[in-house]
Every structure is written in structure tokens, then in C-alpha cells.
Amino acid sequence: MTLPSHLTADVLVIGAGGAGMYAAIEAARAGRSVILADRSLIGRGGATVMAQMTVAVALEEQGLDHWENHYADTLTAGRGLCDPALAQLLCELGPARIREMDAWGVGWARENGEYKRAFAPGHDRPRCVYVDFLNTGPAVSRTLRARLNRTPEIRRIGELLVSELTVRDGECIGATALHVPTGAPVSIAAGATIVATGGLTHMYRRNSASLNMSGDGYALALAAGAELVDMEFVQFFPIGHLAPRLIGMDPIMWDPFRYKLGGRLLNGLREEFIHDYGSEDDGKYVVTRDLATYAIEKEVAAGRGSPHGGAYLSFEHCSEAELRAAGGPVIDRLAANGIDLTKQAVEVAPIAHYHMGGVRVDAKMATSVPGLYAAGEAVGGANGANRLSGNAITEALVFGCQAGASAAEHAARGRVRADVMTFDAARRRITEGVTTRGFNPAALIEAVQSTMQDDVGPFRTESSLRRALDTLGALRKELPGLKPAAGTAFDGALVDWYDLATMTRVGTCVASAALARNESRGAHQREDFPGLDAQWGVNQIIALAGDTLHLERQAVPS
Known about the structure:
By secondary structure, the chain is of the alpha+beta class. The protein has 14 helices and 19 strands. Strand 18 (about 540-545) and strand 19 (about 550-555) form a beta hairpin. Helix 12 packs antiparallel against helix 13. It is globular, with a radius of gyration of 23 Å. The model has no long low-confidence stretch (mean pLDDT about 90).
């Protein structure tokens, strides 16, 4: 596809998952022209389209729930570190977004005319809506894509890798990108820019992420002068599929089965063990993700793991009729993989799934850089030290809508002042590089993923974190001399180089914050500081000066 070398819009949205699509729709509703750019195909990348399960929202029909109840559970899960304004926004505005998605035809499941609501870990009552237990995310993405297609003010551009944001006179005025199909640089001047690129979990060897979730938005915002918050908190989904081999199915698919059927978590000796770690499970799946991750990892470390290094998840107590009632056609797909849940347990183990930290914003989704906003998982602070189950899609929709409205308002106050000359230096940085390939980027990406998994994973120590920082720092020093020159269509080595630059920068942020936090809280577990410390009830803020990261503690907003 031929693409102009310079584009202009009122609002630029980077990332086209649920948050990015909603932001684009909302900015267009406010009368602004929008460019929606993504590294992958529009609406096909990111986390939303992969999410199979439920959406937490306090619908108040029949007086059964209230957003304040959802808010209280979110704060409890966040272990004292949630930004209350962001958490309240998520919970209070969630119902409006769910109802709007319903009006757009998403198809939330109903019974007797009422929304079906499922129970999920950490909630005080059933409040999670869904389309069906394995297709909620795809349905949300499909609905938003259909809405985009009916919105002429939005120009959709896929396969556009944004390399840097441009800031002039302290204000973000657009971005520069690599057009992957042609290898050409493209600059985009915008009155306001929204980072909606998702999280960072592709940085880990074992992850549930799409390939484009390596922390791009964090690196872009940080380099532009924005702050990051609480980067140490990476959530590991405790029962990601491990064995036997599962083809064509999401590794985190087992949650809805546990919701409905109470699957039993067993160690390698076929013993239930959650009660040994300070919580009761009893097959009801009430244990939060951080505690379940801790328990499984500890059983494995003690030599009581399953054969492939995890735990057993057993539904052998269920009949085939019960399994089919809960899973429908999924049972046939499991059978095609040689899995009969009535006769065998599967093996599961923690898998990097979500990031609670991210770009620091206010309740309007504005960063500290005028004209720059963030949305969805790219935002840090709302979920504190541990995200409440079901909050991810709610966050994407609510924060996306809020960011779109705020960016549109900012763009309306001014005008796009940047011409193509403003982006000359950034465009040159894309094209410059070596023409001979002297490195194996795929091998280096695997090395970074292994470093993050082994040294900055669910359980950390001072020595492991320092080792990670040394490894990431050494690789980051090498990267400038390894950059391939742009100009080749679909240059995978160049794309991987950009990913390595992002992963080493963002990985350093995660490891630095984890090293500084000398306690265990939520998803951050220090083996050498196993207890929660009240003095660490603070946020950690990261900013960049030159090429030096600065980290400081700040009180949690009241």
C-alpha cells in the first residue's frame, strides 16, 4: 500500500485494541479528524481481541450492586496503591460503557431479560458480564471495528510502527513511524496524541500477549518527557495452560471453567495445597491471582510440581454433561487436542498476563506533557499492586472513551502547527543504520525474554534484579551500532531492533523499580523481603533525563 510520507489529523491514536478504538470513536464523535495507527491490523492486535472471559461492571439493576462496591473491591485488590481518582473513574463510568456497547450490538449474555453476571476472584458478588466465556474479547473488538467502519472521520492505518513522539515547546505535536510494508518513514502531525499500545507482557518468555505488546507506549511516553508509575507490578495469570500440547486455543482459557465448575488445583502429589498459603479455595476459585501464583510457584520450588513444572488443574469430578453445559463446543476442540477432562487433569502454571504500572495520567488521561494522553493498559495507577479480575476490558473502554474526549478537547483549543520539516530529524533516525546484518535479533529477543522471566519474574531477589539490570544494560549499549537501515519492505530485523530497544528500556524500568521496592506486595514478590511493609505504601515514579532514569517515591494520591 502506498502511504503519503506526511499526514495530519486533529487526534492521533497509537494502538488499535479496545482502548485505542474507543478513543478514536469518542474523538470523532467530538467532531475531530482522527488517525488510528497500529503495528498490526486495526482491531486485530493487542489484548482485547484475545480476551476470552468476563468484564467487571457494577450494573445497578434490581439494587443488586453499586459502583462503590466494585470500587471497594478494586482498592482491596490494589493493596493500597490504587490512584483513587482513576479507580473511581473505572468503576463509576463502567456501566455506561457496557450499556453503550450493548446498544452497538456486542451481545452481552442475558437471562430472563437481565444481564448474566458471573462471579470472579476478588469480587464480593457476581458482577462480571460476558458475551460467552470464550469469545467476549473478540466480540468487543468486532463491535468496535464495526463502529469504526461507520465513522468516516477516522482514518485507519495498520502496520505502522511508531518510533518516537515529537515534542516542540514542551507540547506533543505528533509522531514519526516506520511503514512496515514499504520500509519508509511516515510523520504524523496531530493536535493531540493518545498512547493506547497496551502492556509489556511479551517481554516474558511465558506470556499470554500478542506479539506487539512489548511496552512500546511506555518507552514512547517516557522518551517524550512523561512519567511512568509503579512499573514493578507485573501480574502473572496463575493457571495458564502448560501441558499437554494445546493448539489453536488461548493458554488462559481455564478461568471460566473454574468459575463454573470449581476445578481443583493439585500439586504433583495430587494434593490440594492453596490452604497451605493462607487462603481457602475449596474448588470455588476465590483465590486472587497473586496468591495463586505464589502457591503454585512455591509448590514447584519445593519439588511438588507436576511433570512439566506447574500444577494440575482437575475437572475429573465433573461429568461430561456438566462439562458440555459449561464449555459447549470447547469440549470438542479439547478432544481434537487429545484432552478428555473427565479422565485427565491438565497442567497449568503462571504466565505473564497484565501490567498494573504504566504511563502516569490524571483523571482526564492527560500525561505531564501537554497534548499527550494515554488509555487502557498503557495507563498505570488504577489497579495498584494487583488488578482485580475482569477490570481489564472495563478499563480499556472507560479510559479509551475518556482519553478520546480529552484529546479532542485539547485539539479543538489549538491547531496542528507542525509541518513535515518539523519531523526531519526523526525521519532520518529511521532511515539511518548499518546495511550489513551482524546480529541475530530473534535470538536477542529470546535472551531478553529469558532474563525477564528468570530474574524479574513472579519472585525476585536483589541478586536476580541486579543481574537483569546488568544484562539489559549491556545489550542496550550494543544496540545503536546494530540498527539496520530502513528502506526494505517488511524488514523483520528492523522491527525486531525497535522491539529490542523498547524491551531493554522498559525492562530496565521494571527491574529498577522492583529492586528499589524492598517488600512484597500484590504482584511484586521479593524472596529476600517476603513481608508487606507499611512504609512502602507509596507509588514509584520514573522519569527520564537524557539517557538516565530517575526513580522517586511519592505518596499515593488521596
